[in-house]
Amino acid sequence: MARGLSKSPTSNKLSVTFFLLLMGFAFYISCVSFHERTDFTPENTVRHYSGDEEEEKNDDSNYEYDESLLQEGFYFPKSYRELLDITHVHAFTIPLIIFVMSRILSMTQIRDWIKITIYGTAFTGIIMNLSGPLLVRFTSDLFSISIIASYFLLGICFVAFISIPMYEMWLKPKEANM
């Protein structure tokens, strides 16, 4: 591919466009899934990984019917093995996806310091996202904020990884320099 994506053949632009759109959709689904489990709140994130806390045991006289609680179900703490199984898969796929998207971004003509900032932010988001579940479960509930923040950091990076190449491929005037 040529240095500038805007000068690439249409076939290359289409394959890159389809890949970026699919990655954007995949990240959106990941966010929807995490939101369904946690509402992006620290309390629900802790509950998802560490299980429900032991609350006062209510006797039947204090029991209040709550349909939403019945729908949610009881959350068991994730075992070390479960967390390793989840982290193992994500430790391979997330960096690979970010690498490919970084490689596409590297072919754009934006300034290097912008690219480096995006790469560094994505790396930070990956580390926070991969380490967060284990840290929440076995270290401190405070790391739930790290997991939530990782989604926002990665979201910002995904917007950049997708929008900058798309702009350069399809919207940037041929003679303009960024």
TrEMBL record:
Domain of life from the UniProt record: Bacteria
Protein name: Uncharacterized protein
UniProt entry keywords in alphabetical sequence: Membrane, Transmembrane, Transmembrane helix
Membrane-spanning segments: 12-35, 86-105, 117-136, 142-164
Species in which this protein is naturally found: Candidatus Scalindua brodae
